[in-house]
Every structure is written in structure tokens, then in C-alpha cells.
Amino acid sequence: MTPLAGAFAEATSAAAAALFAGLAGLAALAGLPGHAEARLRALRSAAARPAGPTVRDRLAHRLAGAGGGEARRKTAVVDLCRVLAAELHAGRSPGDALAAAAAELPPEVAGELAPAVAAAQAGDDPGPELRRAAGRPGAAGLRHLAACWQVASGTGSGLAAVVARLGDALAEDVALRQELSAQLAGPRTTALVLAALPAVGLVMASALGGRPLVFLLTTPAGLTCFAGGLALDLLGLWWTHRMVSAVHAVLEPE
């Protein structure tokens, strides 16, 4: 066999292995839900959530407590609104209801709300303190609570019903964000698998008797193919990371 024929056979073997790896990657992608389907599942999941806390809510609360201050605050704001609404429905004054609701939260979150509680119990507007606390990661919902408090105190509207609806809305928003974030795990995993498939193709080509590395690393055509394939592989990883990061930027509260 001439050197040219040997190089052609090695290139054909490597191309066949790469084609097989590509088909395997397409089959893996076909099994993943599309963007519209994933969003529809997330919306259905959020719409089907009951208004009251469930076992899943309590488990998420514990996991959030172990996952960092931002996730803990997100769950704590929802709990604050729900307990505050329940205390107001029971007939307690707004200041006492806010103090009782804050006492049910984790100690570090309750400490951050202490100035707002003190202002409410003194008969002052806790809105500025709530907005100041809302600047911490995961506590953006406190801005809405401050707005509800200000509107209720200014118009005489019932604060309990407004806060109850706010708690439900924040809970649905947290559930939707968690569901959509979970859906992003699929594209990330797929990108890593597809990035590793060329290496699998090289191993398979070597197992079939070819010498793809010799062709790729010692010939001009092979070096061109190797550089182009590596560039496209890295471009695919970067593009997937860019899309996932863009979705995360939309999901994260301001």
C-alpha cells in the first residue's frame, strides 16, 4: 500500500468514526425536550402548585438553607409574606404581625429584618428598612412588601389579603425559576458529551486499526482538520455556555 493510500485509509477511518460519534450526539439531542416544551412544563408545574406550603416546599426550604444565603433569603421572603398574612388575618396589628413573622425565619435573615420590625412596632413606616434589606442577594421580594405596606397604610386597604397574594406570587416565581434552572442542566450535559465525542471517535478509529493521530499530527491536511475540529469544539462549548448564562441572567432577580 502506497503512503498516499495509507493516509487516505486512515482519514476515511477517522471520518467514519467521527460520523458515528456525530450520529450518537444527534440521537442524544433528539431525546432532550425542546425549549418550548421545557417552558411549557415549567409553566404547568408553577400553575399546579398549591397556595399553601407543601412537603416539597418544606424540603426546598431546608435545601435552600444549606445552599447559600441567596437561596435562603428567597425562601425566607416567601415564608415572611405567608406568616405575616396569617397573623394579620388573626387580628394582630401590623407591627406585631411583622415581628411574629420575622421570628419564624432563620436567625440570620431575622436579624437583617430587625430594623424594619422595630420601625413597624414603633408605628413608623418600615418601608425604607425593607427596601434597604431588599438590596441583599435573594431578598428582592422585600421591595414588593414595602410597596404593599405603603399602599395599605396610605389608602386604608386590607394589608392581609395583599400580602397573601404577594406570598403566592413570589412562591410561584421561585418555583418557576427553579424549574427552568433545572431544565438548563440538560443542555450543559449535552454540550460536555458532544465535546468529548471527537475523542471517542479517535479511540474507536484506533481500535479499528487506523492511525488517526498519526494522520492528524504529522500531515498538513491532518493538522488542518485537527485545528479546525478543535476550534469548532471549543466554539460549541463557548456558545452553549453563553446561552445558558444569558438564561440565568434573565432568571436571576435584579
Q: Any low-confidence stretches, pLDDT <50, length ≥5?
A: 14-21, 23-40, 46-67
Question: What is the averaged pLDDT score?
Answer: 75
Report, as a whole number of angstroms, the end-to-end distance. Answer: 67 Å
Strand residue percentage: under 5%
How many β-strand runs?
A: 0
Structural class: mainly alpha
Please state the CA-atom Rg, rounded to the nearest Å.
28 Å
Number of DSSP helical runs: 13
Could you give a short account of the major beta sheet? none
The H/E string reads: HHHHHHHHHHHHH
Per the principal axes of the C-alpha atoms, what is the gross shape?
Answer: rod-shaped
Tell me the helix content: over 70%
Organism: Marinactinospora rubrisoli
Keywords: Cell membrane, Membrane, Transmembrane, Transmembrane helix
Subcellular location: Cell membrane
InterPro entries: T2SS_GspF_dom (IPR018076)
